[in-house]
Amino acid sequence: MNLAAAVMSGFAVAFLAPVVHRAARAYSGWLLALFPAGLTLYLAGLAPAVWRGEALIAAHEWAPSMGLSLSFRLDGLSLLFSLMITGTGAVVLAYAGGYLAGHPRLGRFYTSLVFFMASMLGLVLADNLILLFIFWELTSISSYLLIGFDSEREKARQSALQALLVTGGGGLALLAGVVLMAQAGGSFEISGLAGAAALIQSHALYLPIASLILIGAFTKSAQVPFHFWLPAAMEAPAPVSAYLHAATMVKAGVYLLARLSPVLGGTDFWYVTVTTAGAATMLSGAVMAYHKSDLKQLLAYSTVSVLGILTFLAGLGTGYAAAAMAVLLVAHCLYKGALFLTAGTVDHETGTRDIERLGGLRRAMPLTAAAAALAAVSMAGLPPLFGFVSKEMLYEAGLRAPLHAAALTAVLVVTAMLLFAVAGAAGFRPFYGGSPSTPRHPHEGPPSLWLGPLLLAGGGLLLGLAPALMENAVRYAVLAAAPGQPVPLKLSLFHGLNTALLLSAASVLGGLVLYGARARLIRFGPARALGRWGPARGYEAALAGLNRFAAAQTRVLQSGHLRYYLLTVVGTAVALTGFALIRGGALPRQPVFGDVRWHEVSLVVVILASILTAVRTESRLTAVVALGVVGVGIAALFALFGAPDLAMTQVAVETLTVILLVLVLYHLPDFSKFTPRVGRQRDAIVAIAAGSLMTGLVLAAAAAPHSTGVAAYYLENSYPLAQGRNVVNVILTDFRALDTLGEITVAAVAGIGVFALLRLRPPGDKP
Amino acid sequence: MRSIILSTTAKLLGPLLLACSVLVLLRGHDAPGGGFVGGLLAAAGLTLRAISEGVPAARRAVRIEPHLLLGAGLAAALSSGLPALFAGQPFLTGRWLRVTAPLAGEIKLSTVLLFDVGVYMVVLGTVLLMVFTFSEE
Known about the structure:
The complex is a heterodimer.
Chain A: H1 3-24, H2 28-50, E1 56-63, E2 68-74, H3 76-99, H4 106-125, H5 129-147, H6 154-185, H7 197-201, H8 206-220, H9 229-232, H10 238-247, H11 252-264, H12 268-290, H13 295-316, H14 319-350, H15 366-380, H16 386-399, H17 405-427, H18 447-465, H19 471-481, H20 499-516, H21 518-521, H22 527-533, H23 535-557, H24 562-583, H25 598-616, H26 620-640, H27 644-665, H28 677-703, H29 710-722, H30 727-735, H31 737-759
Antiparallel strand pairs in A: 1-2
Helix pairs in contact in A: 1-2, 1-4, 2-3, 3-4, 3-10, 3-14, 3-18, 3-19, 4-5, 5-6, 6-8, 8-11, 8-12, 10-14, 11-13, 12-13, 12-17, 13-14, 13-17, 14-15, 14-16, 14-18, 14-19, 15-17, 15-18, 16-17, 16-18, 16-20, 17-20, 24-28, 25-26, 26-27, 29-30, 30-31
Chain B: H1 4-27, H2 35-53, H3 55-62, H4 66-79, H5 82-86, E1 96-101, E2 105-110, H6 111-136
Antiparallel strand pairs in B: 1-2
Helix pairs in contact in B: 1-2, 2-3, 2-6, 4-6
C-alpha cells in the first residue's frame, strides 16, 4: 500500500459505509472506526522512516499537460496532521454510531464523514498544488453536507450554505494564488518550490500571490473577519463539530500557512499580515467565547480564538513558534475534540446546551464529567496536562518574536486568561454545583458516548506526563514548516523558573478572576452589539445584493421576445468582432478581387434581388421563398468555387428550412406590420452592420497570407492517417470528430426542445 | 388537401431520395457526401411523404419514433469513440478493418463509418422530430 492508495481507499470506504451500516446496525460505528484506526497504525508505521529524515513519496500521472499529478508526500508536518485526522476520525466515528443511533440517515452521515476524512487526508498529503486545491474544496463540500445534515431545519441549511460560500470562495482565491505561484516558481509541486522562495518573493506578483493564498487560508481557518461561518456551523451534529470544526478541517488554513511559509514567508508583508490577523482573531474569539452561554457556541468561539493563536504562530516563522504550533495543534485536537463530544453527550442526555440551566451532572454522568474535566484542565493550560506544555511553549515563542515581542505576548496572556475562564464554563460548570431540572432526566450514555471523549482527554494527560513522546513528531514538523531554524527541544512539563512560567501563573490568576466575575461581566458586555453588527451582516448584504443583481440583469436581458434576443446576440457579436477586426488592423487597405466572371455577377444579382424581395414583401410565404432563393444562390456560389460538400448540404438545408418555415407559418396570424418605423430603422442598422462585419471578415481572410499550417496538414494527412480522400468529411468525422459529436448533441437537444415546447405543455395552455 | 401530382411524385422521389441518402452516406469518406448531407436527404424524402400522404403515413414509413432514432444515433457516434479508448489511444481515434468480400472486393469497415452513421441518424431524427411535431400541431 502506498500513500495514494491510503487516501483513495477512504473514498471507497465512504461509499461502502451505508452498506456496512445496514449490515451491522448498532455496531456500525465501532466497525467503521476500525478503518481510520487501521490507517493510523499504517501511518504510525511510517513514522520511523519520516523521523530518519526521509520524505515518502507516491506519484502517479493524472493530467500532466495541466501540471496536475496525483503526487503525495509524507514529511514531518503532514505526518503530524494525518495522525490527528485518522486518530480523531476513529474516535468520532465510534461516537457518531452512539450519538445518532437509530437516525434514519445515519448511513449517509457515515458516508459524508468518511468522505471528509479521505479529503482531509488528501489535503495534508498532497504535494501537487492543484491536487491540494481539489481536496481543499472537497473538504468544503463535505463540510457543507455535514453542517446541513439536519436538512429539514432552515437554520441548518443556511449555515451550511454560508460555510460553503465563505470557504469555497476562499478556495477560489487560493486556486488563483496557487496558479500564479506555480508560474512564478516554475513548479506545481510544493517540494519543487522549495528552492524557489527567493524567485517568488522577488517576483512582481508576489503581493497578489501571497494575498490570494492568505484569503484562502484565513477563510478556511475562520480568521477575523471571515470567522462568522464557524459559530454558525454549530448547527451540525456534535461529532461533526468536534471533528471538522475543531480538530481538523478548520486547521487546513494553518496547515497551508505552515506548509507554504518556507516559500512565501520571511517577508514583512507576510509577517505583519499573518500575525496581525492571528492576534486579532485570538483576542476577539476569546472575548466572544467568554460571553456565550450555549455550550457549543462557547466552544466554537474558543476554537476561533485558538485558530488565531495557531495562525499567529505560523506567521512568526521562528523555530520556537513552529514547535509551539505543532504542540498546540495536538493539544487542541485532544482537548477541544473531547469537549465538543462531551457537550454533545450532555445535549444528548439532558436536552439542553445552555450552561445556565446545567449543573451537578457529575453524579449522573461520572465518566463524561471526568473526560470534560481533564479536557478543560488541559484547555486552561494547567499542569500536568499537555495544554500546559503547549502554553509554556506559546509564551516562549511570543517572548522570542522578532518584532513587537512585548505587545504580542500581552495579547497572548489576555487570550489565555479568557480561554481559562471559558474552559471552566465548558468543562466544569455543567458538572458541578446544584442540579437544576433539565428537559430530560440525565444519565450516563452508552460506551460509545463516553469512551471516545475519555480517550482524547486521557491522551492529553498522557502527553502532559510524558511530553517526550511527542518530541520526534514535533521536531520533524518544525523541520518542514520552518527549515533552517533552530529547533528548540526538549519538550518537558517543567522548564525551570522563567518568564514563561511567571506569565503562566499570572494568566491562571487572571483566568480565575474572569471565571468568577463572568456572570456580572457579560451583562454589560459589548459582545451583543458585536453579534448584531459583525461581519456576518456584510455576508447577508452581499448575498441579498447578488440576488438583486441577478433579478435586475434577468429583467434587462431576458425579455422573452425573440427579436430582442436576436438583437442582443447580433449586436454583441458585431460590436466585439468589429472592434477586434479594426483594432487588430486585419482589414486590408485595398481589397483584392480576382477576375470576376459574368455568371458570378448574375448569381449575386439574383441573391440581392431576393433579399430586397424578402425585406419588402407583405406576404410571409413570399419572404420564405425569397430567402430560399438566397440560400440556393449561395449554394450555387459554393459549387462554383469548388466546395461540392458545402453546396450539397446548403441545398438540403435550404429545402428543409423552407418546408419547416411553411409549416410554422401555417399557425401564425395574418401578416401585418407591427413594428413602428423607428424599430424598422433600428433593425435595418443592425442588419447592415452585421452584413458589413461579415464582408469585412471575408475581405480580411482573403487578404491574409494563405495559411500553410492546419489546412496543409489536413490535406497532406487525410489519406495517410485517416484513409479518406474527402478532406471535408475526414475533418468532420475523424480529425475533429469531438467537435462534430458536440454539434450533433446540440442538434439533438434542439430537436427535443422543439418537441418539448410544443408537446409537453400543461393541459389547457394553447398558444 | 391532396394533390395527385404531388403524391405521384412523392411515391417516385421518396424512395429515390432515401436510396441516394444511403449512397451519399457510404461514399462520404472519399467523395462529396457524408452523414450530415445523407441525413438531410433522407429527411427530405420522408418529409415529402409526410406532406403528400400525411404524417401518420410518414411515421409508418420510418417505423421507429424519431426521438429513438436520435438517441440511437448519439449512442452510435459516442460508442464509435470507445474502441480507441480500449486500445489506449485518445477517444474517437479512427480504427479500420479491411475486409475482402466475395463480390464487392475490399471493404473498409471503420469506427469512422459508425460515427458517420450516428451523425446520419441524429440529423434524420432531429429533422423528422421537428417536422412531425410542427405538422401535427
